[in-house]
Design brief:
It holds the Pfam family AlkZ-like. This protein is α+β, with helices and mostly antiparallel strands. It has 15 helices and 14 strands. The N and C termini lie far apart (60 Å).
């Protein structure tokens, strides 16, 4: 492996690192007079490389929100078409990117190495490797069923009791086999039901000729992913790069070293970072207007909490799985960025029956408890309410920063 430590790094300040990280993720000032069409949505997704999918729906399905955070209010049906539409409409496919993700179809060949790993029983959850190894005839029978019957959900294949009894983690044998076929690229998700369950079909029926793209050599595909990832992250450590695409540790280290030697990554010494960073060879630090946005925990900016703290000085932990009495800020807490800095966080719920966006709590960061921050946050909350087809915003807690925020609502 080449020795990258001998190459003199460029120096980057903490402020420049923040500029790079936000510019790479496609943040821009929303323009209400400029239509958010399919082209703009795809341009944004290509910048981030993917949209993470998650089952949490207390506010909105996770994949809708990063587009809103960057482009403002848009028609969610456009993203549905890009994700699950007809062959002509579809520009995304679901696979394992960072986690379960919607990924541009043109990047399908860059993930074939991961599918090939799964075919060998590597790089996936043990139960999937086990069923592929121990019950190949059963797995093959599911493929034949799809070939014959077309789109099918795992729940329609048998009525076996779930292991462990949990809706999400207690899987039937058919579900386990289908997930193996999905991970290994033999089937694909045609759509997600309202319950978030996948409906599966054969890849060529979903993405057409793209399904027949040749498998690139592992190192070539991984270098291509890293080249995209470093642009999306702006500046990143080897660990950041590895985690963005969930690359195997040794693969990530080898690819980074190769790309530095080839001039495809430039080492960077970043103010305050203990580990060396890297930037793209053509990286430019543009002093654009600093963005303001609400972000969900599943936004690419928020994926790695240690990176968020390193770049923005913002300590954030998702508390969905924390017992209610032990939560510090709330169940589904969105960080609020104002002028390029995280200044507050709000615990939100979309009350669809009452058509109200409920703010259960709001907390300002130290030194940020001001009318200016509260006013900007309330503007963004009303925009979010309109995006989610809510008719208003209601702050339910009346103390501290929440009281200041509620006062801004009264002034609106």
């Amino acid at each position: 492996m080449p020795d990258v430590s001998a190459i003199k790094p460029v120096s980057i300040s903490a402020k420049q690192a923040r500029h790079l990280a936000l510019a790479g993720q496609g943040f821009e000032t929303p323009d209400p007079d400029r239509a958010v069409d399919r082209r703009r949505i795809m341009k944004m997704i290509r910048k981030s490389n993917m949209l993470q999918i998650d089952s949490v729906n207390v506010l909105s399905r996770a994949h809708y929100m990063p587009v809103f955070s960057r482009l403002g209010i848009y028609d969610r049906e456009l993203l549905d078409q890009l994700s699950w539409g007809t062959a002509k409409q579809r520009k995304l496919f679901e696979y394992w990117g960072h986690e379960a993700s919607l990924i541009p179809v043109e990047d399908y060949p860059l993930y074939r190495w991961r599918m090939e790993d799964a075919l060998r029983g590597e790089g996936m959850w043990g139960r999937m490797a086990r069923i592929a190894r121990e019950e190949p005839d059963f797995v093959a029978s599911l493929l034949r069923h799809l070939e014959r019957e077309g789109t099918t959900a795992a729940s329609a294949l048998n009525e076996e009791p779930r292991e462990g009894g949990s809706q999400w983690w207690g899987w039937t044998k058919a579900k386990t086999a289908m997930e193996y076929l999905f991970w290994s690229g033999q089937v694909m998700a045609r759509k997600r039901r309202s319950s978030f369950e996948r409906e599966y079909d054969l890849p060529h029926r979903i993405i057409g000729d793209a399904a027949y793209a040749p498998t690139l050599p592992r190192d070539v595909a991984q270098r291509a992913l890293i080249a995209r990832g470093i642009v999306a992250m702006g500046v990143a450590t080897t660990a950041d790069i590895r985690k963005y695409f969930r690359l195997p540790n040794e693969d990530a280290k080898a690819r980074v070293a190769e790309m530095v030697e080839n001039g495809d990554l430039v080492p960077a010494s970043v103010e305050g970072w203990a580990q060396p960073g890297f930037i793209a060879p053509d990286a430019k630090i543009r002093r654009r207007s600093a963005p303001s946005a609400l972000m969900v925990p599943f936004d690419p900016v928020m994926w790695e909490r240690d990176r968020v703290e390193r770049i923005f000085g913002f300590n954030y932990r998702i508390e969905i799985y924390t017992p209610a009495e032990k939560r510090q800020f709330g169940y589904y807490v969105l960080p609020f960025m104002h002028n390029g800095e995280f200044v507050a966080r709000v615990d939100l719920k979309a009350d669809r029956q009452a058509k109200v966006l409920r703010v259960f709590s709001a907390h300002a960061e130290q030194g940020c408890d001001s009318d200016d921050v509260a006013a900007s946050l309330m503007v963004h909350l009303h925009q979010l309410a309109r995006f989610l087809d809510m008719e208003g915003v209601e702050v339910t807690q009346m103390n501290g920063f929440s009281k200041r925020l509620a006062a801004q609502g009264a002034l609106a």
